[in-house]
């Protein structure tokens, strides 16, 4: 088609205009030279309804507001100190997962790696983000979050024909109400237990303190706070699971690489896994980066 219509083509699908590029030079123009013009994600009916009209970081258009949210996430929520504070959670949950694998092998059962990884990452992220929120609240949040992932995936006519009337919008609005209600319960529970002695700050606590202090340089609304929580949870569970699953798959298909990775990991960690030594796993990092190149968990990575 590029020989007939050129390397830059426009195709209208429904009410949406799409631009296709098909040359080696064009991606550089889009992703580097004019990257700011193309930096915003296209909003869909699902992202608009479920993520508070783009008030989160993932789906907010490129702007000062987006830059401030990104700064909040990198400087407050995902700092090295903050991540290390959740180290004990990760160690415990990974230990439980390994024990489960050992029990399955001993009894001759097949290990469903995908389900195991999903449960592992979901438990770790929910504990880091929600802390000691009541179990029923956490389980309900995980349930509706999984429904959100299912609703955002796949092809929808309503994304191409914005004026179309069908049941999908009603389904999204109902799901959004459920998500919003659960988040309200979790946030109110954290506010009620702010002064508890036996309490370590989780991501909800950090966001509430930042909202109250008003030191961010912009107004952190409750909608934005909820949107960021959804970003952290969905980005940390579904995508992490996919990356680990594909990495394991690629390693198993390449025995030489698997042996080299095993030797590296066993040589560095021996009988005790210490996150401080993760930076020494240079070859494993290369393997993971190659996996990301071959199997990106999203068409365009989260900014």
UniProtKB/TrEMBL annotation:
It holds the Pfam family p450. The keyword Heme applies. InterPro entries: Cyt_P450, Cyt_P450_E_grp-I, Cyt_P450_sf. One of its GO terms (molecular function) is oxidoreductase activity, acting on paired donors, with incorporation or reduction of molecular oxygen. Keywords: Heme, Iron, Metal-binding, Oxidoreductase. The keyword Nucleus does not apply. SUPFAM superfamilies: Cytochrome P450. Coiled coil: none annotated. Belongs to the cytochrome P450 family. PANTHER family: CYTOCHROME P450 71D11-LIKE (PTHR47955:SF8), CYTOCHROME P450 FAMILY 71 PROTEIN (PTHR47955). This is Cytochrome P450. It comes from Linum tenue.
């Amino acid at each position: 088609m590029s020989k007939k219509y050129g390397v830059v083509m426009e195709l209208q699908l429904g009410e949406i205009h799409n631009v296709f590029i098909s040359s080696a030079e064009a991606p550089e123009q889009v992703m580097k030279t004019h990257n700011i013009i193309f930096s915003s994600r296209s909003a869909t009916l699902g992202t608009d309804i479920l993520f508070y009209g783009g008030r989160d970081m993932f789906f907010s258009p490129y702007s000062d507001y987006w830059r401030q949210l990104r700064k909040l996430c990198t400087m407050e929520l995902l700092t090295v100190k903050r991540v290390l504070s959740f180290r004990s959670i990760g160690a415990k949950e990974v230990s439980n997962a390994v024990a489960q694998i050992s029990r399955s092998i001993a009894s001759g059962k097949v290990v469903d790696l995908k389900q195991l990884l999903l449960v592992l990452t979901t438990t770790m992220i929910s504990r880091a983000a929600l802390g000691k929120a009541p179990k029923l609240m956490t389980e309900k949040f995980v349930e509706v979050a999984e429904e959100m992932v299912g609703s955002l995936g796949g092809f929808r006519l309503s994304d191409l024909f914005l004026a179309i009337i069908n049941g999908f919008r009603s389904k999204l609005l109902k799901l959004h109400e459920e998500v919003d209600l659960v988040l309200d319960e979790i946030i109110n529970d954290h506010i009620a237990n702010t002064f508890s002695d036996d309490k370590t700050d989780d991501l909800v606590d950090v966001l509430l303190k930042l909202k109250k202090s008003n030191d961010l340089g912009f107004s952190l609304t409750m909608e934005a706070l909820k949107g960021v929580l959804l970003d952290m949870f969905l980005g940390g569970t579904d995508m992490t699971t996919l990356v680990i699953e594909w990495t394991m798959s690629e390693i198993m298909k390449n025995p030489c690489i698997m042996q080299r990775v095993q030797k590296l990991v066993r040589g560095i960690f021996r009988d005790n896994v210490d996150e401080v030594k993760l930076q020494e796993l240079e070859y494993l990092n290369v393997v993971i980066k190659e996996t990301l190149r071959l199997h990106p968990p999203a068409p365009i990575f989260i900014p």
